[in-house]
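Hi F.,

I've been meaning to write this up properly since the lab meeting, where we talked about keeping a consistent format for the predictions we share between groups. The idea is simple: the sequence comes first, exactly as it goes in, then the structure tokens exactly as they come out, then a line or two of notes. No screenshots and no reformatting. I'm using this chain as the first example so we have something concrete to point to.
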Amino acid sequence: MADDLLGDLLSLEDGFYDEGFQAGVADSARAGHLEGKVFGIEKGYDKALELGKLNGRAYVWKYRQQDAKRVATDEPLRAGSDDVTRSSSPIGEAFNAMTSLPKNSRLDKHVDGILALTDPDKVSTDNSDESVSQFEDSVAKAKAKAKMVAIAASEPLEAGSGPAASIEDSAGLSARH
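Output, unedited:
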């Protein structure tokens, strides 16, 4: 009977160790899942932001190409772009202040290629390996085409100081630390 009492006392530390270990494993698994979700959301946001910037730049370049064609042939702009440029909004004023792009069929193909590669309706948002790989390839091709257009237009590819480092930076919010 003395052995059982002494044995229980000696194994008490092992019991507490095992209990603490199991609690730590459960807590770290939960924290790991949360951290993984946050990381996934941040990376997804960064990818979507990059794709959106390329798509927006391509639409601006497309407008500037249409403007060059309109000036050369005295044709009205295609439907949709007139509404923005005729308005007295800051966007309309910005469009009106832009210079036309040089007339070049290769430049037209690059801009159309960027628009096709970054079309939000055609870009897959699945999380499979094949979809992610296809998305990365599309973004890389669109970046290469955007670089060619930016060089031809004699303007920097990045309008700001660089890509946003996080969601807080691009949205104008400050992180709470």
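Notes:
DSSP finds six helices and no strands in the chain.
Residues 25 and 31 are 10 Å apart (CA to CA).

If this format works for you, I'll send the rest the same way.

G.
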